Amino acid sequence: MSLREEARAFLEESLSGPFAHARGLGGPGREHEGHELRQAWERHLGKHGWTCLAWPERYGGRAASLEDQVAFHEEYARADAPPPGSATSARA
Q1: By the number of CB atoms within 10 A of the CB, which of 2, 51, 71, 90 ranks highest?
Q2: Could you tell me the pTM of the whole model?
Q3: CB 27 within 8 A of CB 92
Q4: Cα 57 from Cα 22, distance rounded (Å)
Q5: Rounded to an integer, what distance in angstroms lies between the CA atom of residue 58 and that of residue 74?
Q6: Of 2, 80, 91, 90, residue with least CA distance to 41
Q7: Whole-angstrom Cα distance, residue 59 to residue 80?
Q8: SS (H, E, C) 52-91
């Protein structure tokens, strides 16, 4: 399975159930929305190795190529996932 396919499957599965309401939260001008849910989402991404994609696997990354990183972010945008890092910034 390619990283794109893996990302698509992960995002589709994860953005249903407890994270279904996280879709689209926290975009520009909407930074105040669902802060706690977005923090939980970011912890979920980290737990499953979807942060720091280019980092070596031994440090929690995926050693992803630039092409794979782009594929992940395309799938992330397609899934309407909350903007990465949006819950770790200061609240609006």
Answers
A1: 71
A2: 0.85
A3: no
A4: 27
A5: 25
A6: 80
A7: 27
A8: CCCCCHHHCCCCCCHHHHHHHHHHHHHCCCCCCCCCCCCC
Q: Which residues of 54-89 are buried (b: 16+ CB within 10 A; e: fewer)?
A: eeeeeeeebebeeebeebbeebbeebebbbeebbee
Distance of CA 52 to the CA centre of its chain: 10
| Residue that the structure tokens 């689209």 belong to | 24
Whether 31 contacts 91, CB under 8 Å: yes
Q: What is the pLDDT of residues 29-88, one digit of tens each?
A: 877 888 899 999 999 999 999 999 999 999 989 999 999 999 999 999 999 999 877 555
For residue 50, the one-letter residue type is: W
Which tokens belong to 46?
């980290």
